[in-house]
Specification:
single chain; 5 helices; 16% strand; globular
Length: 207
Protein backbone atom coordinates (compact mmCIF):
# COMPACT_ATOMS: atom_id res chain seq x y z
CA UNK A 1 0.00 0.00 0.00
CA UNK A 2 1.40 3.43 -0.98
CA UNK A 3 2.18 6.00 1.74
CA UNK A 4 -0.36 8.43 0.26
CA UNK A 5 -3.06 5.75 0.43
CA UNK A 6 -2.15 4.89 4.04
CA UNK A 7 -2.35 8.58 4.98
CA UNK A 8 -5.77 8.87 3.31
CA UNK A 9 -7.11 5.81 5.15
CA UNK A 10 -5.65 7.00 8.45
CA UNK A 11 -7.35 10.38 8.01
CA UNK A 12 -10.67 8.66 7.33
CA UNK A 13 -10.21 6.40 10.36
CA UNK A 14 -9.48 9.40 12.58
CA UNK A 15 -12.57 11.19 11.32
CA UNK A 16 -14.72 8.14 11.96
CA UNK A 17 -13.12 7.58 15.36
CA UNK A 18 -13.93 11.12 16.43
CA UNK A 19 -17.50 10.54 15.25
CA UNK A 20 -17.64 7.39 17.38
CA UNK A 21 -16.31 9.28 20.40
CA UNK A 22 -18.94 11.98 19.88
CA UNK A 23 -21.59 9.26 19.66
CA UNK A 24 -20.39 7.89 23.00
CA UNK A 25 -20.93 11.36 24.45
CA UNK A 26 -24.46 11.41 23.07
CA UNK A 27 -25.21 8.11 24.82
CA UNK A 28 -24.17 9.79 28.05
CA UNK A 29 -27.38 11.82 28.09
CA UNK A 30 -29.55 8.74 28.80
CA UNK A 31 -31.27 8.76 32.19
CA UNK A 32 -32.81 5.59 33.64
CA UNK A 33 -34.27 4.89 37.09
CA UNK A 34 -35.64 1.31 36.96
CA UNK A 35 -33.81 -1.71 38.40
CA UNK A 36 -31.15 0.31 40.18
CA UNK A 37 -28.19 -1.51 41.81
CA UNK A 38 -25.46 0.27 43.74
CA UNK A 39 -22.02 -1.15 44.57
CA UNK A 40 -21.46 -1.42 48.32
CA UNK A 41 -17.77 -0.44 48.26
CA UNK A 42 -17.51 3.25 49.24
CA UNK A 43 -14.56 3.64 46.86
CA UNK A 44 -16.75 2.73 43.90
CA UNK A 45 -18.11 5.80 42.16
CA UNK A 46 -20.65 4.22 39.83
CA UNK A 47 -23.91 2.32 39.78
CA UNK A 48 -25.40 0.01 37.17
CA UNK A 49 -29.03 0.31 36.11
CA UNK A 50 -31.09 -1.98 33.92
CA UNK A 51 -32.74 0.25 31.32
CA UNK A 52 -35.50 -2.24 30.61
CA UNK A 53 -34.73 -1.92 26.90
CA UNK A 54 -31.99 -4.50 26.50
CA UNK A 55 -29.01 -2.56 27.78
CA UNK A 56 -27.41 -1.52 31.03
CA UNK A 57 -26.69 2.09 32.03
CA UNK A 58 -23.72 3.05 34.18
CA UNK A 59 -24.02 6.37 36.01
CA UNK A 60 -20.97 7.77 37.77
CA UNK A 61 -20.14 10.46 40.30
CA UNK A 62 -18.47 13.27 38.33
CA UNK A 63 -17.93 10.86 35.44
CA UNK A 64 -19.32 9.78 32.09
CA UNK A 65 -22.60 7.90 31.77
CA UNK A 66 -22.06 4.68 29.83
CA UNK A 67 -24.35 2.08 28.31
CA UNK A 68 -23.64 -1.45 27.18
CA UNK A 69 -25.38 -4.65 26.16
CA UNK A 70 -24.76 -7.68 28.36
CA UNK A 71 -25.31 -9.93 25.35
CA UNK A 72 -22.39 -8.29 23.51
CA UNK A 73 -19.82 -9.79 25.87
CA UNK A 74 -18.41 -6.41 26.88
CA UNK A 75 -17.41 -6.20 30.53
CA UNK A 76 -16.57 -3.24 32.75
CA UNK A 77 -13.08 -2.37 33.92
CA UNK A 78 -12.63 -0.39 37.12
CA UNK A 79 -9.96 2.24 37.74
CA UNK A 80 -9.87 4.85 40.50
CA UNK A 81 -13.41 3.80 41.42
CA UNK A 82 -14.77 4.57 37.94
CA UNK A 83 -16.11 2.17 35.32
CA UNK A 84 -14.90 1.83 31.74
CA UNK A 85 -16.01 -0.47 28.94
CA UNK A 86 -13.46 -3.08 27.86
CA UNK A 87 -14.44 -2.81 24.22
CA UNK A 88 -11.65 -5.00 22.83
CA UNK A 89 -11.85 -7.46 25.74
CA UNK A 90 -8.13 -7.48 26.53
CA UNK A 91 -8.56 -6.82 30.24
CA UNK A 92 -6.63 -3.54 29.96
CA UNK A 93 -7.94 0.03 29.93
CA UNK A 94 -6.76 1.26 26.55
CA UNK A 95 -6.59 4.95 25.81
CA UNK A 96 -9.47 4.86 23.35
CA UNK A 97 -11.67 3.28 26.05
CA UNK A 98 -10.83 5.94 28.63
CA UNK A 99 -13.63 8.54 28.65
CA UNK A 100 -11.41 10.88 30.71
CA UNK A 101 -9.32 11.51 27.59
CA UNK A 102 -10.43 14.06 24.98
CA UNK A 103 -12.05 12.90 21.73
CA UNK A 104 -9.00 13.54 19.54
CA UNK A 105 -6.69 11.58 21.84
CA UNK A 106 -9.09 8.64 21.89
CA UNK A 107 -9.53 8.73 18.10
CA UNK A 108 -5.75 8.83 17.58
CA UNK A 109 -5.31 5.87 19.94
CA UNK A 110 -7.99 3.84 18.15
CA UNK A 111 -6.48 4.65 14.75
CA UNK A 112 -3.07 3.50 15.98
CA UNK A 113 -4.53 0.19 17.19
CA UNK A 114 -6.29 -0.37 13.87
CA UNK A 115 -3.15 0.43 11.89
CA UNK A 116 -1.00 -1.81 14.08
CA UNK A 117 -3.31 -4.75 13.37
CA UNK A 118 -2.51 -4.43 9.68
CA UNK A 119 -5.00 -5.62 7.09
CA UNK A 120 -7.35 -7.06 9.72
CA UNK A 121 -7.52 -3.77 11.61
CA UNK A 122 -7.91 -1.75 8.44
CA UNK A 123 -10.70 -4.02 7.25
CA UNK A 124 -12.60 -3.33 10.46
CA UNK A 125 -12.01 0.40 10.14
CA UNK A 126 -13.02 0.61 6.52
CA UNK A 127 -16.50 -0.46 7.55
CA UNK A 128 -16.86 3.00 9.06
CA UNK A 129 -16.87 4.51 5.59
CA UNK A 130 -20.11 3.01 4.22
CA UNK A 131 -23.33 5.01 4.14
CA UNK A 132 -26.18 2.66 3.20
CA UNK A 133 -29.86 3.07 3.84
CA UNK A 134 -31.01 0.17 6.00
CA UNK A 135 -34.37 -1.46 6.61
CA UNK A 136 -35.29 -1.28 10.28
CA UNK A 137 -34.99 -4.60 12.10
CA UNK A 138 -35.33 -5.32 15.80
CA UNK A 139 -33.47 -8.63 15.75
CA UNK A 140 -29.76 -9.26 16.25
CA UNK A 141 -29.77 -12.91 15.12
CA UNK A 142 -27.15 -14.18 12.69
CA UNK A 143 -29.86 -14.65 10.07
CA UNK A 144 -30.89 -10.98 10.09
CA UNK A 145 -29.86 -8.45 7.47
CA UNK A 146 -28.78 -6.17 10.32
CA UNK A 147 -26.25 -8.77 11.47
CA UNK A 148 -24.95 -9.11 7.91
CA UNK A 149 -24.52 -5.33 7.59
CA UNK A 150 -22.54 -5.03 10.81
CA UNK A 151 -20.54 -8.27 10.97
CA UNK A 152 -19.93 -9.28 7.37
CA UNK A 153 -20.01 -5.96 5.54
CA UNK A 154 -18.42 -4.06 8.46
CA UNK A 155 -20.88 -1.18 8.09
CA UNK A 156 -20.83 1.43 10.86
CA UNK A 157 -22.76 4.31 9.21
CA UNK A 158 -26.46 3.64 8.64
CA UNK A 159 -28.95 6.11 7.22
CA UNK A 160 -32.28 5.09 8.71
CA UNK A 161 -35.41 5.73 6.69
CA UNK A 162 -39.02 5.50 7.74
CA UNK A 163 -41.05 2.54 6.51
CA UNK A 164 -44.73 1.81 6.96
CA UNK A 165 -45.33 0.20 10.34
CA UNK A 166 -42.25 1.69 11.94
CA UNK A 167 -42.53 4.09 14.85
CA UNK A 168 -39.94 5.75 17.11
CA UNK A 169 -40.09 2.87 19.61
CA UNK A 170 -39.49 0.17 16.98
CA UNK A 171 -36.70 2.23 15.41
CA UNK A 172 -35.02 2.72 18.81
CA UNK A 173 -35.31 -1.02 19.46
CA UNK A 174 -33.70 -1.75 16.10
CA UNK A 175 -30.93 0.75 16.78
CA UNK A 176 -30.21 -0.87 20.14
CA UNK A 177 -30.04 -4.28 18.46
CA UNK A 178 -27.55 -2.94 15.94
CA UNK A 179 -25.38 -1.39 18.64
CA UNK A 180 -25.37 -4.68 20.55
CA UNK A 181 -24.02 -6.45 17.46
CA UNK A 182 -21.41 -3.75 16.83
CA UNK A 183 -20.31 -3.81 20.46
CA UNK A 184 -19.69 -7.57 20.21
CA UNK A 185 -17.22 -7.09 17.35
CA UNK A 186 -13.52 -6.25 17.44
CA UNK A 187 -12.82 -2.86 19.09
CA UNK A 188 -16.53 -2.39 19.90
CA UNK A 189 -16.86 0.45 17.39
CA UNK A 190 -20.50 1.69 17.49
CA UNK A 191 -22.84 2.39 14.60
CA UNK A 192 -23.46 6.00 13.67
CA UNK A 193 -27.18 6.17 12.90
CA UNK A 194 -28.60 9.19 11.13
CA UNK A 195 -31.81 10.27 9.43
CA UNK A 196 -33.52 13.37 8.07
CA UNK A 197 -36.98 14.52 6.87
CA UNK A 198 -36.22 13.40 3.32
CA UNK A 199 -35.99 9.83 4.63
CA UNK A 200 -39.15 9.99 6.71
CA UNK A 201 -37.93 11.37 10.06
CA UNK A 202 -40.52 13.66 11.60
CA UNK A 203 -40.57 15.80 14.70
CA UNK A 204 -44.23 14.87 15.11
CA UNK A 205 -43.39 11.24 15.86
CA UNK A 206 -43.32 10.43 19.56
CA UNK A 207 -42.21 7.44 21.60
Amino acid sequence: MKNSEKKRIRKQILSAGISAAMFAGMIGSISVVAGETTASDSAVKYQITDSGYGFQVVTQIDGATLSYSESSGVILLEQDGYAFKDLNRNGVLDTYEDWREDDETRAQALASLLMSDGEEGLHTALGLLYHPSARMESTATEESALYDYVVNQKIRHILSYYMEGNNPTSIATANNAGQSIAESQAYGIPINYSSDPRHGASGEQQI
